[in-house]
Amino acid sequence: MLICGIDEAGRGPLAGPVVAAAVVMEDCTEITGARDSKTLSESVRNELSLRIKDRCKDYSIGIADHKEIDSLNILQATMLAMFRALIGLKVLPDSVLIDGNYFRLPGRAEISYNFKTIVKGDSKIHEISCASILAKVERDKIMKDYNEQYPLYGFSTNKGYPTRYHISTIRTSGICDIHRISFCGKFISEGNCNR
User: What DSSP character marks residue 151?
Assistant: First the structure.
């Protein structure tokens, strides 16, 4: 039986996209060490990501950028990223397991998959754990690339999350093009929204 796990990374940051991964695996496939990406170091996640890509039947990444997050809201943008990951698969799974307590297709989209949401699925279901790792590794790579464009904000280390340094930089220098305005409002004064 082919099982697809789906998870996301990047719901809480002030900047950058939300990234979802869909991973299709045989239900008996185990990637030793794979668990919720939040419990793993960056180097371990990177190594596991390569092993997951090598051993899974298929995987796909879906992204909703900061503009979509601002225009839709984070929940709907997350659903969109998950949907994009799902429809990007070339191998059709028998069932789809999604981390969380809610999944709704965006707009009038239709899929014929049997899907189920699982609260804390990234720590309970192996396929979701693997998706969690791929999503986090991909998003971290994106944020490191953005750090080259916007080094002031420290995206290579904070990945867009609201660290003390990141918030302080927004308050003194304003936001950059990849900040989520809907998330940064309380840190922006009238004069420093330089977008």
Answer: G
DSSP label of 152: G
Amino acid at 139: R
The tally of domains found in the chain comes to: 2
- Computed from CA positions of residues 177, 180, 185, 186, in that sequence, does the dihedral angle turn out positive or negative? negative
Percent helix, strand, coil in the chain, to 5, is 50, 20, 35
Same domain, 134 and 158: no
Q: What is the DSSP string of 46-115?
A: HHHHHHHHHHSSEEEEEEE-HHHHHHH-HHHHHHHHHHHHHHT-SSPPSEEEEESS----STT------E
170's enclosing H/E stretch is helix 164-173
pLDDT beneath 50, residues of the chain: 190-191, 195
Domain that holds residue 132: 2-140
Residues in the chain: 195
